[in-house]
Amino acid sequence: MTKSWNRGAEQKRQRLAAARAQGLDKLVPAERAIDLLEAVLTPGDRLCVEGNNQKHADFLSACLAQVDPARVNGLHIVQSNLALPQHLDVFERGIAAKLDFCYSGEQGVRMARLINEGRIEVGAIHTYLELYSRYFVDLTPQVAFVAAQSADAEGNLYTGPNTEDTPAVVEGTAFKNGIVIAQVNEIVERVPRVDVPAGWVSFVVPSPKPHYIEPIFTRDPAQISEIQVLMAMMVIKGLYAPYEINRLNHGIGFDTAAIELILPTYAASLGLKDKICSYMTVNPCPTLIPAIEAGFVKGIHCAGSELGMERYIEERSDVFFNGPDGTMRSNRVFCQLAGHYVDLFIGSTLQIDLEGNSSTATLNRIAGFGGAPNFGSESRGRRHASPGWLKAGEESAASRMSAMPRGRKLVVQLVETFREKMQPTFVERLDAWQLQEDFDLDLPPVMIYGDDVTHIVTEEGIAHLHRCNTLAEREQAIRGVAGYTPVGLARDPLAVEALRRQGIIQRPEDLDIDPRLATRDLLAAKSIKDLVRWSGGLYDPPNRFRNW
């Protein structure tokens, strides 16, 4: 028997023929979208539904939830972010059975229930880069849904500022005989920029309304507390200045927003302009506007965009990566890669244990990891040097066991000792262990492993974990900044004081920081309206953030 080497191409021809048999050409009316999905999908297909941090192929995913389960069932969903109810509706109806994903956010509680009920078989909880990579290895989609701003008559796509995951999804599918279906906000005569060539797109569906997009990176400065200002001061004076951190990634949240907002005030007063925070890999957070306008931040590559920031980004092309049409082209894969090789990652978490392992997965909720594990991991493939990378490498206890000099990326967890509802951030044992047992996972869902973390910063001070010689020292360094949590109260006072004398633990006073001066007066902008003023009126915040 002659072996076939083109079964994928033949399957694609069959799918296209099935659509044509339904009278469907490349441009498919919205009211025929369900017919299209029932024509091209077959039971057990691997399907990628573009669902990013912000942009979602929401119309197509809603149509998927309405297909006939007798015709389309048992799908294997390979999707980075499950944020909308219909993403899980397909499992309740039996249309989908297996899931590989990265982040579930608000759907985490419902997902946990469906897993418990046996309606979702979890392949794995991935990081973003990990899942995108598997699109090109063993999780290649047979069909993909993507979202774009516009398409022309031929099917060329313009994704706009929120390009995000689209290139990775399309390329992984189209170049392995897959079917790419794009929902677009509008059909235009000529797209401003070709982000996806027409030849890679199988079908275009004009959506009845613009695709769903969420402004998840906007933080109102009015909600930043003085404790967060104090921690931001410690980060700048205790980490950014001595390590000369000039290329970095900020996580999202009020903790890092506070850092961004005191760059033009506190950091400037320390003479740090042009010495720290020049280049960032991060979404265009509005709280970065004062630092950009003050000349601190000179370049930003973005994973996605942010609602309301479009005009500001267009007018700051020296800072952002804009296309010839003037609008930004974000790219989550490139941003994640860029962020992996910077000098520092700083972000927050929900729980930290005595080894410094951290997780955002808590009991009865599987939120996933998103991009933090890739940003917040040691970049062992890095070979270029920088002052901070070399300094951290020289200080690391591990480097003292080898004659070979090495650098090290700084990975910082920035947390208050208690989070919402007085839940302690520091715990003896992560909830992740219980989740592993409850959901029969191969591993506890840890976001950032402790051996990747170099520093923990709380309102109590900084713990320089990379300088600890033993796990016992590391435990006491963590307890030493854990404040009045049960973990902190169980510290060995003599051991903690010894670590402080060695500079492994630093209190605010050790950094010559007076906590009484940590006030909101240091914030360059104290409200969303202030951010609009800093932008010269270019920032147009969504209505939910306007109170004037």
Shape: globular
Computed structural class: alpha/beta
Q: Return residue spans where pLDDT drops below 50 for at least 5 consecutive residues.
A: none
List how many beta strands DSSP finds: 18
Distance from first to last alpha carbon: 75 Å
> What is the mean pLDDT?
94
| CATH superfamily annotation of the largest domain | Glutaconate Coenzyme A-transferase
CATH-derived topology of the largest domain: Glutaconate Coenzyme A-transferase
Overall number of domains: 3
Beta-strand portion reads: 5-15%
CATH class of the largest domain: Alpha Beta
CATH architect. name of the largest domain: 3-Layer(aba) Sandwich
Labels describing this entry:
single chain; 548 residues; alpha/beta; Glutaconate Coenzyme A-transferase; eight-stranded mixed β-sheet; 30% helix; 15% strand
Detailed description of the structure:
With 548 residues, the chain is α/β, with parallel strands linked by helices. The chain is built from 19 helices and 18 strands. The chain folds into three domains: 22-213, Glutaconate Coenzyme A-transferase, CATH 3.40.1080; 215-232 and 243-342 and 513-538, no CATH class; 343-506, Glutaconate Coenzyme A-transferase, CATH 3.40.1080. It has helices at residues 7-21, 33-40, 58-64, 85-92, 108-116, 128-134, 166-174, 226-240, 254-269, 289-293, 310-314, 332-340, 372-375, 387-395, 431-438, 471-480, 486-489, 493-501, 528-534; strands at residues 46-49, 75-81, 96-103, 121-125, 143-151, 157-158, 179-187, 203-206, 247-250, 279-281, 299-301, 344-347, 351-352, 358-359, 410-414, 455-458, 461-464, 505-506. α1 (7-21) packs antiparallel against α2 (33-40). The model has no long low-confidence stretch (mean pLDDT 94).
